Amino acid sequence: MVEQLVRTLTAEARHLGRAVLRRAPAVWKALHLGKLDAGRAILVSAVVICLALALVHLFRRWRRHRKTAVALEEAKERGVRVPLTLHPVINTDICIGSLTCLKSCPEGDILGIVNGAAELVHADHCIGHGKCAAECPVDAIKLVFGTSERGIDLPMIDEYFESSRRGVHIIGELGGMGLIRNAVTQGLQAGERLAETLPKGKGSAADVLIVGAGPAGLAAALRLREAGRSFRLVDQGSLGGTVANYPRQKVVMTEPFQVPYFGKVSKKLISKEELLEIWERALRKASVNVEEGVKVSGIEGQDGAFRVQTNRGPMDARKVVLATGLRGTPRKIGCRGEDLAKVTYRLIDTEQYEGCDVLVVGGGDSAVEAAVQLAEQSDARVSISYRGDSFSKCRDANRKKIAGLVQARRVRELLSSEVDLINENEVVLTVAGSPQVLPNHFVIVNIGGEVPLEFLSKLQISLEKHFGEERKKPKRAPVGDRRGLAREKDERSSHRRAHFLYFLTGTLILTWLTLKGWSYYLLSHTDRMASPVHEMLRPAGRWGHGVGIVATLFMMSNFLYPVRKRAKFLSGKGSIRGWLDFHMFVGFMSPLVIAFHAAFQSNNQLATGTAAALLVVVLTGIIGRFIYGLIPSAGGKALQISDVLGRWERLRARLQPMLDEADNPALLHRMFDSAAKPVRPGSLLWMFATWPLRSTWMRWRLFAARFHFDDVHYYRQFREGYRQLSRLRMQVTFYDSLKNLLRGWRVFHASLAGFLVIAIAAHIAVSVYLGYVFFR
Predict the structure, then answer these.
(1) Could you tell me how far CA 498 lies from the centroid of its own chain?
(2) What is the pairing mode between strands 296-302 and 305-310?
(3) In this structure, are residues 218 and 325 in contact, taking their beta carbons and an 8 Å threshold?
(4) Which has the closest alpha carbon to 594: 582, 612, 581?
(5) pLDDT for res 715
(6) Alpha carbon distance 316, 301 (integer Å)
(7) Sequence-distant contacts of 682-689: CB under 8 A, at least 24 apart
(8) pLDDT at 492 > cutoff 50
(9) Beta 87-90 vs 141-145: how paired, if at all?
(10) What is the pTM of this model?
(11) In a 3-state reduction of DSSP, which class is residue 638?
């Protein structure tokens, strides 16, 4: 499909380019010699401009497609097509290729465009920011955990983050949300939910015990403090959780988020120290104390009356929030000697490794960053061991850094290797099948974290495996302020109010314009000349001209939406769906208002051409926004046809002895081959025109094949399979061809929109040249 589209777009671009180049000299010469009248000149110029704009659009589309196809092939070769965590899934039937999802991702080129729709390209680099879903104007993207090929185990929680054990809530990285902003959002939502639904308690037990002082736990604590609820915040380490374990001055990327008692954190790149300072300031202002060094070992009791067992003694609480993350359960190598004190699972301070032999184990970003920091910030002798043959799971920037350090001999690269034994002064590895011994003082293992299955099982919390499924979204609680859980509902209500406001505004404008000149617009062209309001309501009159100026400015505001999509400084400014709603409102209203400016008559070819182009732009916009998404692709049929093809080939294998002995085996073999050949989309017109002939030909071939079967049962199986495949092939061809045809709406929509700008400018220039000015 990819190669076919590339060939098609290339052929179209080449054909359009030749047409433009072939016609342009002739048009110019004819205009120069005066052989074309003004009308034909305008028409030919318009066609040439539209073709040129279409050519540019097709070329850019082909370039984007080609870039994505190359990236997908590279990702396939590196074996990194499986997402590691929360990631987007795109419904290509709905996607309109707005490109906003591509430009919104903070991680860079995670998504690409294939066949005019978005697709996840660098799946291994996606870490679930979710901005792509937020920036999709048609809700074609949803965020899911796991894939159909590889599931992911996560604690079972409902839309309010409550686990299978009533009263115990799970938020943050432990529940699958590893990003700081996402963890903070969940913490605020969980805190809000508990504050609103938990009755005021009496006695010494705290309302909530929060386990984990990372971003999720801190946000929940601050939200509960705002609501005036009692709680205890404990952590087995120190303030910051996973963030506190980052190396010194490590810069992390985050999206803006709101911290109670502090305000908005808007920096996209922030160091570990800055982030911890923000939390400390908020906690001081809120008078929240973090009980550090408290390790939870079990939870007894039931919802409303829990007793949590810790190394500091039991703690009573009515609700429990687990925000521990995965740092307490790092994935281990599983080799002998891994329990030695010199083995650690994180890099905090590079100074402690000065002059030492250090082995970093892992091939992801964390491991590579640790090796890079050790090599750049200390004089340690650094080696990195990875079982893969390349650092394919790293970001490009990290791959380039480690490659440069390896080339400079600051890091020793041990690919296709595994650690077999760790001793006090050395490590034994298998490198490309051969044993190798390295002198060693420290081993840093960075191969990821695991869900603490044993701990969760002990707490009686069930797990569920996600195979590309969307996590349930939080619902609105009965009462409370308009933050956290309420935000999503507020956005939906805002869109509904905007739709009603647009409808009301459009109705009032059209009603006002209609009442203003109703008696005039009903007159014939001749009778209008004698009307007393003709001088005011005609297109060049004060009223008509004023309506034209306002309508033109109004129509040009339609380009705010494409500017919003492409301009980085506007990214995230307002809901993209709201911008699209305004775009559609202006698109629907523009031709109607322009009709009042023209007084519902056409008096010059330039204005008529502009109005026609505007109408096509609106119609193609309607196709793209509403009709295109209603046409399904052949994905479901493709799965169905693959199943039928399997039965078809099994039938062929059973009939092979009979086929070899038949009078005319070539006929049956041709029928088997023709029914099983790949389906290719084509022209809808040609498909419908040739359908009667294809149907007749199929019946004739089945009739001829009947005489080559001795067993009626086998013939019936053959006939049924052949008919079923023929029907499915027709359906697949229809859906794919129709989808390809409708996909062309973007070419017309974008090209004629560009032409409109030129035509409107020309229309204004002609009006000014002829003396049509508003102020006299």
Answers:
(1) 25
(2) antiparallel
(3) no
(4) 612
(5) 81
(6) 9
(7) 682/733, 682/737, 683/737, 684/734, 684/737, 684/738, 684/741, 687/730, 687/733, 687/734, 687/737
(8) yes
(9) antiparallel
(10) 0.63
(11) helix
